[in-house]
Each structure stands twice: as C-alpha cells, then as structure tokens.
Amino acid sequence: MGVRQHLAVAAAVVTAGAVLAMSPPAMAAPAAVAQTVQTASAWVSPGKTLKFGAKGSVVKVLQTRLRELGYLPGKIDGRYGGSTQSAVWAFQKVNGIKPTSTIASKTWRALESPKLPKVLVPNGKPTRAEVNLTTQILVLYVKGRIKLISHISSGSGVPYVEYATWNGTRQRFSGDARTPTGNFKTTWRRDGWHKSYLGQLYNPIFFNGGIAFHGALSVPLYPASHGCVRLPMHVAEVLPGLLGKGVPVHVRGRFQR
C-alpha cells in the first residue's frame, strides 16, 4: 500500500466522540477514544523507519494515527519534532515498548493493534484524570471515554534545597520532590506562566496543595520535577479546556529507576 493510500485509510478511520474545538487555533485536541482497541484490519502501517527530524507524508500518517488514539502529536504537519516525539513516547510506554524517538517495526505493529492504558480506578467517576507514576503517563477520561493520553515527568523523589526570592526576601525551600499518591480534585489554576517559589509553571492546574499539572520546557523520560506533574507544552495548552474544576485526580504507582 502506498503512502497516499495510507493517508486515505487514516482519514477514513472514525473514532468515537466529537472532535473538540481548537485550543489554541493551531492545536486540536483528540477525539474521544472508544474503549475498544481497533483491529489491524482498520489501519495498516507504512512500516517505514522514521527518526526524529523526519519530514513528509509518512510522518503525517504517524501523527494522524496518534491523534486518533488519544495522543497529542502537535500539528499534523509532517514534521517529526518534539511534540510528536512526546506523543510517541506516551504511546510506546502504554504499549510496553521502551521509549525511543525511532519509529521502527515494533512501534508500527503496536500502532496497528494498540493497547489501552491500564485503568487505575475501575470504579472512578466517568470524568477523571489518572496519573500512573510507574509508567509516567497521564490519562484523562471524559464521560467514560479516553480523551487524552500524555507523557509526563513527576517528582524525582530526590531531596532538594532551593533558594529563591519570595515575597521580597530571599528564602530557603527544601523537600523530597515527591508526587504523593492518593485521590484529589482539581482546584485553582492560572493562565500562561505562573511564578512559584520553585520555578515557572505554564498553565498550572492545581490538584493537591501546591502540586499541579503544568507545562514545562523540559519533560524528560524520568521523574525530574519538585513534585508537580510536568506536561509537554503543547499538551498544557489544551488541557485547561478539557479538565474543569473539581474533577477527581487519582495518582497511583511508583516510578522504578
């Protein structure tokens, strides 16, 4: 099957739910994903190896497929950049593949027969956020269906000491950089960059005291935050329009270094 045919197949695959309005204009949120895994007959991969920085129609096939499955690859522009890489990492982690920026046979096969993320709270509210510290994944459910799956970086667990000017005076802050497990709810939020005593947070949505979901310029493949849940910047642009106030947030697991 040629690339043009693959694009036609990808465009023909319909996922459950309505596509959300763009937020921001250049970034569309994924449609809700039905709680069934699409079979290999519904989508056939190009099978061409892609590396970070690749361009072209095969990258568009990849980006379209990721969005159909609930991952956010950024713009469907045929450019394999950082936004698409973070979506690839999330997909690979959910499917038990060691995260890598190279798209080869194992990842293409998984895209043909994808797995769903592990449900952490089977009896949870239909609309909720689940944070899996073991796999470093965020899953947002809306009305019982997956709306978004994202790569994250949570608290490093490493004790820290930071000095920052806060309320006009230089102060010392220390802690163990944990993202506590438990059941919480989203509370207050800020638009754009918000200065905290431990750094800058983009579009933060707080759910446990000073711990928030927020965009960050660095979201590595290991826990690196002071305790917040770091998100890729393009995901943090969309999440506030999907995750309201008072929504349950369930944090489970433990990252194994």
Automatic annotation (TrEMBL):
Q: Which InterPro entries match?
A: LD-transpeptidase (IPR050979), LD_TPept_cat_dom (IPR005490), Peptidoglycan-bd-like (IPR002477), PGBD-like_sf (IPR036365), PGBDSf (IPR036366), Transpep_catalytic_dom (IPR038063)
Q: Which UniProt keywords apply?
A: Cell shape, Cell wall biogenesis/degradation, Peptidoglycan synthesis, Signal, Transferase
GO cellular component: a single term: extracellular region
Residues forming the L,D-TPase catalytic domain are 127-252
Q: What organism, scientifically named, is this protein from?
A: Herbidospora galbida
Q: What is this protein called?
A: Murein L,D-transpeptidase
GO biological process terms, alphabetically, are: cell wall organization; peptidoglycan-protein cross-linking; regulation of cell shape
The cross-references to PANTHER family, in alphabetical order and at most eight, read: L,D-TRANSPEPTIDASE (PTHR30582), L,D-TRANSPEPTIDASE YCIB-RELATED (PTHR30582:SF2)
The root-end lineage is: Bacteria, Bacillati, Actinomycetota, Actinomycetes, Streptosporangiales
